[in-house]
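Review form for a predicted model. The reviewer records the input and the model, then writes brief findings.
Reviewer: anonymous (R2)
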Amino acid sequence: MSEFDREHDVDAEPIHEVLIQYPTLDSLQARLGEIFGERDRIYFDERYARIQLFENGVADLFDGLRRSQRAEDYEVPCARVVARIFCIANSFEYLPVSNGMMEKFPVEGCAYCGTSPCICADNRGEVHLATPNAFQQNWNLRQWQLHLDNLYGEPNRAKGIWFATTRLAVETNELVSAEDSIRHMTIEEAKNTYTHELADSLAWTIAIANILGVDLQKATEDRFGNGCNNCGSVPCRCSRHNMQQVKFG
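Model under review:
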C-alpha cells in the first residue's frame, strides 16, 4: 500500500496535517474560474481553443512519460490538465464537473456493473447514470481520487500508464466531436454531453495520477492555490495564452 493510500480515506478528512484550501470539487472549479475566467473569456472566445489547450496538456504527459515516470515529475503536468478541464467547463455559464462525476462514478459502485471494485469485462454494457447526491457533492479532489482508485485502480494499474494516457487522449477527441455536434443539440443536451465528457476526462486524469502516485489535490493547490502560477494575481493579469506545448521538466 502506498503512502498516499495509507494516509487518506475517501470518507474522511486526511489524518495528517495537510491544509486543503478547496474542500469540494465545486470550490476548486470556482476558484480556478476566479483566477483564469476573465483571461479565458478574452482570449478563448471559442471553446475549440480551450479544448486545444487541454490537448496540449495531454501531449505534455505523453512527452514526459518517455523520459520519466517519477511522481514528482508529474505534479505540475497533472495539475495543468485538471485546470484545463475546468477551463472548458467554465466556458458554460454553469457546468459543474462534479455533477458528471456523481452520475458516472457513484458511491455505490461502477455505473456499468454496479459493483465496487469494478468487475466489468473490457466490453462494457450500458451505463446506468446515477442521481447526484449530497454526500459526493461534498467530496474534494482527493476524495474523488481515492474513490476512483477503489473502483478501478487495480485494473488500471494492470493495464498500465500508457493505456490510461491513451484513454485520456481519446477523451480529447470526444470533446472535439461534441463541439462539432453542439449546434444540433438543445442547451440541456449540450450541457449534459459536456458534463459527462469532462467527467470522463477528469476520471482518466485521476487514473494517471493514481498509477504514478500523484496527489492531485496537493498538486493542483500547490500550482494554483495562490493565484496564477505566472503572474501571481487573482484574477490572472497575463497576456494571451501560449498555445505551444509546454516542454517537460
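Findings: Confidence is low (pLDDT under 50) at residues 1-17.
Further findings: The chain is about 60% helix and 0% strand.
Recommendation: see findings above.
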